[in-house]
Specification:
With 394 residues, the protein is of the alpha/beta class. It folds into two domains: 27-32 and 284-382, Aspartate Aminotransferase, domain 1 (Alpha-Beta Complex); 38-281, Type I PLP-dependent aspartate aminotransferase-like (Major domain) (Aspartate Aminotransferase, domain 2), CATH 3.40.640. It is 37% helix and 14% strand. A hairpin with an 8-residue loop joins strand 13 and strand 14 (357-361). The chain binds pyridoxal-5'-phosphate.
Length: 394
């Protein structure tokens, strides 16, 4: 027996002092994660089975088929990557860009910045076009930059969670095809919630997450790539410089071979199957309308309370509303009040918008009339308690 002494696992004297794991019951109306659907939580709690078990392989095929419906495409290589949205984001860069290749990134918020950071780590030749945080690109601007720069990949965020902007995507795919460039879309805050047609809009590769429109906990990131993207992957001159995210290896597990790559997070795949099944049952069009209606009601309610929205109605994102914090209000104190006394989470602004806006999410299971009404009532009664001086608006 070794003479080494056990290290206590905490500053508590006795490491057996811990109580059973529990967390408060919160209503997550921030930028994500959103609350998981109760049926998803039921699915998640089933016992793991082997990741090469026949029953699990069948479940994987269900997940892929249901994902194709959610993405509105027939792409063969459609799978949930292990890891949060950033994992599939990084896979999109690591697999489709080789050192020195040109990627044009249309950046209009925090997550555009993340794409730029990732692409430069993979030594891409990164060209960035920028918009104010709260604005979107026009098709003409995108066409001009693609024709001028001739990139191999053009990347843009569909639903910018940092600003509350929904970027129109129709027409971009045609421009990319004419210019022999792959069209890459970040759909982290749109999949399963907002109108999105991967095939019809000629999107070559897109990624998302499990914790927003799909009403699951964080942990998986759906990715889909079409034949054009598959061809680019096949024709790489160099190995994908990231083993875990290498799609040619993952394809052997998620394709017909079912060869072990890494131990799949099986319970998360139970969860996503259930989240996707619920989406298919409700129907995408109904879901898109539900998100739009609840967001419209939230926006008009906030405006009626005298608050100002950050994004113009033309580009407003139904899954995430950004509202300006009135100059007379301590934004953090109000958010903390909602969390502590009402068990409701809303988000602060990110980056340059920190302290200037709140971010209110209505995503997946949480996009409900009762949540909108509850939040608006609380804003109505509570916000006035947080103004430094009583202004006429409140
Ligand atoms: C638009 C967008 N892209 C990427 C990400 C990164 O996803 P994750 O935090 O799940 O890794 C997020 C996270 O919220 C996001 O909103």
């Amino acid at each position: 027996m070794t003479e080494a002494k056990l290290i206590s696992s905490s500053i508590k004297e006795n490491h057996t002092d811990y109580s059973k794991t529990s967390v408060p019951n919160r209503l997550l109306l921030g930028p994500g994660p959103s609350n998981a659907h109760p049926e998803v939580l039921n699915a998640l709690s089933m016992n793991p089975i082997g990741h090469l078990d026949e029953a699990y392989l069948e479940l994987m095929s269900d997940v892929q088929n249901l994902l194709r419906y959610a993405w509105q495409c027939n792409n063969r290589l459609t799978l949930p990557m292990s890891g949060t949205g950033s994992a599939a984001m990084e896979a999109s860069i690591a697999n489709f860009i080789e050192e020195g290749e040109k990627i044009l990134i249309a950046k209009k918020g925090y997550f555009g910045d993340r794409l730029v950071d990732m692409a430069s780590r993979y030594k891409a030749n990164v060209i960035v076009i920028e918009k104010e945080w709260g604005d979107a690109f026009t098709l003409d601007e995108i066409q001009f930059e693609i024709e001028k720069n001739k990139p191999s990949v053009f990347a843009i965020v569909h639903a910018e969670t940092s600003t509350g902007v929904l970027q129109p995507l129709q027409g971009i795919g045609d421009i990319c095809r004419k210019n022999d460039c792959l069209f890459l879309v970040d759909a982290v805050t749109s999949l399963g919630a907002l109108e999105l047609f991967v095939e019809d809009w000629k999107i070559d590769l897109a990624y998302s997450c499990s914790q927003k429109g799909l009403s699951c906990p964080p942990g998986l990131s759906p990715l889909t790539i079409n034949d054009r993207a598959e061809e680019k992957l096949r024709n790489r001159k160099t190995k994908v410089p990231n083993w875990y995210l290498d799609l040619s290896l993952l394809n052997k597990y998620w394709g017909s071979d079912r060869v072990y790559h890494h131990t799949a997070p099986v319970n998360m795949n139970y969860a996503i199957r259930e989240g996707l099944r619920l989406i298919a049952n409700e129907g995408l069009e109904n879901i898109w309308n539900r998100h739009l209606e609840n967001s419209n009601n939230l926006c008009s309610g906030l405006t009626e309370l005298g608050l100002e929205l950050h994004v113009s109605s033309a580009y407003r994102l139904p899954t995430l509303t950004t509202v300006k914090i009135p100059g007379s209000v301590d934004g953090d104190a109000f958010r903390n009040h909602l969390l502590k006394n009402f068990q409701i989470e809303i988000g602060n602004g990110l980056g340059s918008l920190s302290g200037k806006i709140w971010r209110i999410g209505l995503m997946g299971y949480n996009s409900k009339k009762e949540n909108v009404d509850r939040l608006l009532n609380i804003f109505d009664t509570e916000l006035k308690k947080f103004t430094f001086f009583q202004s006429a608006t409140f």
